[in-house]
Amino acid sequence: MSSAAYRQESGYPRAMTGLKQDWGLAAAELDGQGWAMLPGLMAAADCECVAALYDRDAPFRSRVVMARHGFGRGEYRYFSYRLPRLVEKLRGTLYPHLVPIANGWQARLGQTARFADTHAGYIARCHKAGQTRPTPLLLRYGPGDYNCLHQDLYGAEVFPLQVAILLSEPGKDFIGGEFVLTEQRPRQQSRVMVVPLAKGDGVVFAVNNRPVKGVRGDYQVKMRHGVSRLTAGQRHTLGIIFHDAS
Question: Is 129 within 8 Å of 69 (Cβ atoms)?
């Protein structure tokens, strides 16, 4: 295979300038609301390159039709190892920016375990625990499709943050299909948040529990995420999950 063909096949990143984020602001927003925008994380051409992988078999290990499992409507495919170059690059490059936040949350929640400085180090821990299947995924929705509120937990090893990147353009490629988060607070009704993503934008958010500062110290809230119903068009999303699955 030629180098040009490999780049096209594997989703080779044309430009990674979107990783130049305000990580201090992202950390503050994660602490304040459980999610943060990562604007312009992927170039439009890279979004189209990754979305085009969906109909190929080679990059993936499995396909899930949501309606068969009560997850909603639509479908998604888990990438196999070796990950496409862009997906691998995003996973390894985002992780070091997020691990200080994750370890800070561990301390605030009274957890003694800490996450490795590098993603390769953390993946080694996942594999030692029997979680060896890659979890980055590509999702596709059509008219009437939606994703029920859920958490991406695949075993005992859970990195507390994950990233979703919108690969399609709202209002042009699809209508509806908003990314939504809920926060379940103790002894209170759940709070719903809608994330206003544009094509190429990412959102980093809590996988499961996150700490919230209260009058008597930190307490724990539970987060879930999903996608509202599409009314027209087609929507693709790239999900970057940092722990592997058992």
Answer: no
